[in-house]
Amino acid sequence: MKLYEYNWMQVEEYLKSDDRVVIPLGSVEQHAYLSLGTDAIVGEACAIEAAEGTDVPVLPVMPFGLTPRFTEFAGTITLRESVFLDVVRDILDALFSHGFRRFLIVSGHAGNVPAKGAAAEWEALHPGAQVIYHAGVVEPEVWDFALSIDSDTGHASWVENFAATRVSDAVMPEAAKAPVDPEALRTFGPVELKELLEDGNFGGPYTRPQSEAEAVWQATVNSIRTALTDGWSTPSTRRCT
User: Fold this and answer.
1) Helix and strand numbers, DSSP H then E, in the chain
2) What is the DSSP string of 37-78?
3) Of the residues 82, 179, 200, 233, which has the maximum number of CB atoms within 10 A of its CB?
4) Which of 107, 137, 132, 109 is CA-nearest to residue 122?
5) Are 225 and 134 in contact (CB under 8 A)?
6) For the chain, which residues make up each domain, given as ranges?
């Protein structure tokens, strides 16, 4: 359930029986022919779908993340890591002060992983709090599933090509792109990386049968749902369902 579908009094009532909340993190960055908002769109939508059937509030996605090496691509927006992590901590602080104790962070962007360490540090300083970091589509069990369909799967390829992330009038290449050198992806700066990637795809088919993309989406939703329902190390002292 979206947090925006609650008013403050309803949240206060919810906290009498449950203390879980979902925090989606995204990014605004190049995704070749797909939307610049792909990571934010997928992270938020999968989190909302995973929470369906519960009253657990899902925050609106934090759209801006860490993507410093894509800054030569027009439209990409990155935050300084210190700013990004301060925002994550501020969100956790605010929610904790209201009575939330179990926090599921769902990141639609692989580059946001520093939030995982920051959340663990924050948790250690807040007795009674539990924080789970879920990496969305690149969560190992989900990504391994995608690779089992096509081992050349990469950033901005078919694995992120959903109805929600397509851009009108953008024509996808029919041929698959050869995988880019992984070492170059790790070491090149923004200018070199843009020259290397050209359109931004890391490699693999731009499209595959829609049923396969939908299977990856569902695997992501199922993995998030499992974390939300069964991922906690200790149960809340409240009457949670």
Assistant:
1) 8, 3
2) THHHHHHHHHHHHHTTTS---BPPPB--B--GGGTTSTT-BB
3) 200
4) 132
5) no
6) 3-230
Token pair 């929610």 is found at 95
Q: How far apart are CA 135 and CA 180, in angstroms?
A: 22
Residue-level pLDDT, tens digit, the chain, 241 residues? 899 999 999 999 999 999 999 999 999 999 999 999 999 999 999 999 999 999 999 999 999 999 999 999 999 999 999 999 999 999 999 999 999 999 999 999 999 999 999 999 999 999 999 999 999 999 999 999 999 999 999 999 999 999 999 999 999 999 999 999 999 999 999 999 999 999 999 999 999 999 999 999 999 999 999 999 999 986 654 444 3
**Contact partners, residue 134, CB within 8 Å, separation at least 6:** 104, 105, 106, 107, 223, 224, 227
Cα 216 to the center of its chain, rounded Å: 14
Tokens of 239: 């009457």
Give bridge partners of residue 20 from the DSSP assignment. 102
182: which 2 tokens? 């992984």
Rounded CA separation 75/87 (Å): 21
Which sign does the torsion angle of CA 115, 120, 123, 128 carry? positive
Instruction: State how far the Cα of 139 lies from the Cα of 163, in Å rounded to an integer.
Output: 21
Q: And the tokens for 211?
A: 């049923």
**Sign of the CA dihedral with 97 first, then 98, 99, and 103 last:** negative
